[in-house]
Amino acid sequence: MLFKQQAWLRQKLLVLGSLAVGSLLYLVARVGSLDRLQPICPVEGRFGARGQAEFPLRALQFKRGLLHEFRKGNSSKEQVHLQDLVQQLPKAIIIGVRKGGTRALLEMLNLHPAVVKASQEIHFFDNDDNYAKGIEWYRKKMPFSYPQQITIEKSPAYFITEEVPERIYKMNSSIKLLIIVREPTTRAISDYTQVLEGKERKNKTYYKFEKLAIDPNTCEVNTKYKAVRTSIYTKHLERWLKYFPIEQFHIVDGDRLITEPLPELQLVEKFLNLPPRISQYNLYFNATRGFYCLRFNIIFNKCLAGSKGRIHPEVDPSVITKLRKFFHPFNQKFYQITGRTLNWP
Ligand code: A3P
């Protein structure tokens, strides 16, 4: 009996020992690869001499830990408040465009230590019922942050909804507005693909893209089709310009954010007056996903959900040509107003 127990104990110790050695080897390998990757985020004093604020990394980690505990119910609201954490109205909003890459932009900006994202789309300004709940309701939907940090939210429906510019203006007339756009025809097809997936899930029948985008009676582009209308960026922007000067907008090239995210993010950092903190270390290309993914630190990295980057259906090339021709003059106007020329056909 005693012999059996000793053998069992020896076996357990052997397993534990191999586990410990394995973990050690893994850590050594990770640290080794980290050296090669040359992390640029410093451990302390995350803002340099040009920066406006200091966020020691340990404080940020503590903040995350505390909020985790808070969510689990192990930490009181008072404890969170004791750490000077507040729920702030957004200083910048990604107002659109749907399927432009709004989620990728929000997640990538959240890599910056001074940015805190609202994870969910809040739909405060475009939904009358939510708007009626008042600005305090909206503020309470925001994540906890340090006063020196900025909160960003994204709700792509804002860009195309009539009432939104005035409502946002009433909240903060100097807010910064981010618009991420993609080549209009590709965006329309992406929009269609998302709706199609929803219909298929519900076993509903749906028309082909060609049938929706082209009016069968006139053989012209169907401007009543929402996916087409949303891609006429200049029309929507003109409504916004009745409330905000163009300097308060920044246009992000959504096509470039897919292939070369860092320079696009650096432009946004500049626009938001943030010190440059997002680096190549934070972004790595994942060949399986076919997209850039996010690396927050040595332990935590993530790719966007599978619903981002759907395979588009094949569309009749003559329809694509027709749509591109249709969007062309609107695109020219958009470049002229925004001062950003994009390489769209
Ligand atoms: P597709 O699904 O058409 O490829 P939104 O978040 O506004 O709905 O935009 C979705 C689009 O973001 C996707 O469109 C995808 O191409 C694009 N995107 C940009 N960067 C991405 C990334 N790093 N990972 C996944 N999708 C990304």
UniProtKB/TrEMBL annotation:
Which residues are catalytic? K99
User: What organism does the record attribute this protein to?
Assistant: Cervus elaphus hippelaphus
- Taxonomically, which superkingdom? Eukaryota
Q: Which residue positions does the secretion signal occupy?
A: none
Provide the Gene Ontology terms for cellular component. Answer: Golgi membrane
Q: Which InterPro entries match?
A: NST/OST, P-loop_NTPase, Sulfotransferase_dom
Q: Where in the cell is it found?
A: Golgi apparatus membrane
Q: Which UniProt keywords apply?
A: Disulfide bond, Glycoprotein, Golgi apparatus, Membrane, Signal-anchor, Transferase, Transmembrane, Transmembrane helix
The cysteines covalently paired via disulfide bonds are C293-C303
Any keyword Cell inner membrane?
Answer: no
Q: What is this protein called?
A: Sulfotransferase
Residues where 3'-phosphoadenylyl sulfate binds: K99, G100, G101, T102, R103, R182, S190, Y292, K308, G309, R310, I311, H312
